Amino acid sequence: MQSLNFDPAETDPRAFREALGRFATGITVVTCATPTGPLGITANSFASVSLDPPLVLWSPAKGSSRYPFFAAASHFAIHVIAEEQRGICNGFARSGDAFDDIDWETGLNGVPLINNCLSRFECETSAVHDGGDHSIVVAKVARVTTRPGTPLLFHGGQYGGFAAD
Question: What sign has the CA pseudo-torsion 114, 116, 117, 119?
Fold first, then answer.
């Protein structure tokens, strides 16, 4: 197979997106409270930043209709989705109010918390940085809930699982 070499600023953005898709990521759902109720969005742009203090980041797309709510949220939760929770991932990819058929509760500061995820990080925004067509939201983690299980993964535009050696 031949490698493709290109300048992403001068090539069809789809080629750059496909190159980025070669990196397998976990799937998260980020939730926040809004004046009209709970809101969620599926995201794979999640990373740890620091252990001391405990910081994480995620990067919402500025073009999303849900972006203004997440940009304004001082508190939110990031939920690491398990393989068997694919329906939750799909629900929030389509709609921000996909809470009807899932197990969730209201946490501190009114943040909606999805139960039974692999890990859940309850966060307070500490900084927001410009990241081109996304923002980079850095947050301090106030509380973690976690359990064992198999993660739902995303690679090359498709969902999949994890097979250990």
Answer: positive
pLDDT tens digits for range 39-56: 999 999 999 999 999 999
- Name 57's bridge partners: 47, 138
Q: What is the pLDDT of residue 64?
A: 96
The pair of structure tokens assigned to 74 is: 């001082």
Q: What is the DSSP string of 132-158?
A: TTEEEEEEEEEEEEE---PBPEEETTE
Establish how many alpha carbons lie within 13 A of residue 32's alpha carbon, considering only the half-sphere containing its beta carbon.
18
Give the amino acid at 84.
Answer: E
Type of residue found at 152: L
**CA-based diameter of the chain, in Å?**
52
By the 8 A CB rule, do 86 and 73 touch?
no
Q: How far apart are CA 59 and CA 127, in angstroms?
A: 12
Q: How far apart are CA 63 and CA 76, in angstroms?
A: 19
pTM of the model: 0.93
